Amino acid sequence: MSERTPAARARRRRRIGGALAAWGILASLFLLWQTLTYRGLMALAAEWQFNTFGRYYPSLTYVLLAVVIASPVLWLLRRDPREDEDLPDLPGLFFIRSILGVGVGCLLVCLVVLIAMTSLPGDTGPVERIVLGSPTAARVPRTGPTILVGSVVRDRTAGLNQELLVARRTMRFAPMLTPGAAPQSVRFFVEIGPNEEAATLRPDGLREGILRQGGLPGELEKLFGYAGYDLTTPYYTLFATRAGLQWPYRVAAIQLAIVGLVCLIAAGLLHLRRERLRRRLREAR
């Protein structure tokens, strides 16, 4: 059997390389989605880290899992020595396209996150007062400016230190129950300020802020479940400020924008270098 020609080998590498590049891009974006929503592999890795180290490293976990799952893309960096003479920079083209795809994908996801942030409840408009245990607490609440009146379970406060790429913040939440009620199913949670102590709580159990459906980080949902609380579907979280409500979205958008821009710049620089090498090769011939 005759040996394949360099052109045939190049076409084969192009097809395989394109498939592997697409796999790497999709795997990386899928893991990013799991990181932001606390699902799947990222949730399993986070719970293992909590049980082993007592904390969770989201950025490091994402990078390690992305490298492992998208590792077939490393094939693109391998050069076939038999092609050096005729197609010396072909693998670089696939690699550049991979980086470009990741950059564009990150910027698109960043746009989606910003759009989602605009749909969050605002801090303007009439304030709704909800007294836990009253008929008003049984109906579906209106999200937005809200006053909750109930009993904050201070000894079940759960906190999360989020050390992300561009910011660091400590978030603390506690269940709010009907006074005297047993801590079974929980429908409302409230954000606790980082410097807030028991002495600063209002004696009437009143909390004012912005109510949204859901809202707890996925890590804390699991933690409250392990503590014996059954979160109702849906449940609601009262944030102290709109800045706290938007913070996870802002951080995610900034991180995606940074990664996307870095990938685009890197792809542009690699493309310029590749073109210079091609010109030198043509001149040498």
From TrEMBL:
Record's keyword terms, sorted: Membrane, Transmembrane, Transmembrane helix
Record bears the keyword Transmembrane: yes
Record field: transmembrane: 16-36, 56-77, 98-117, 252-272
Presence of the UniProt keyword Transmembrane in the record: yes
Domain of life per record: Bacteria
Name of the protein in question: ResB-like domain-containing protein
Species name: Sphingomonas aurea
